[in-house]
Amino acid sequence: MIKLGIIGTNWITEQFVNACDITKSFELTHVYSRTTQKAQQFIDDLKKTEIRVSTDLNEFFKSDDFDTVYIASPNGLHFGQAKLALENGKNVIVEKPSTSTVREFTILDDLAHENKLFLFEAARHIHEPIFKKIQEYVDDNRSELSGATISYMKYSSRYDAFKAGKLPNIFNPKFSGGALYDLGVYTIYDAVVLFGQPDKVGYTPEVLSSGIDGSGSLTLKYPDFDVNMLIGKTKNSYLQSEIYFNKKTLLMDSGGDITHIKLADENKNITTIPTQKSDNPMDSEASEFARIINENDQETYEKLLKYARIVNRILEQARTSAGLVFGADEEK
Question: Where does the Gfo/Idh/MocA-like oxidoreductase N-terminal domain lie (predicted)?
Answer without folding.
Answer: 2-119
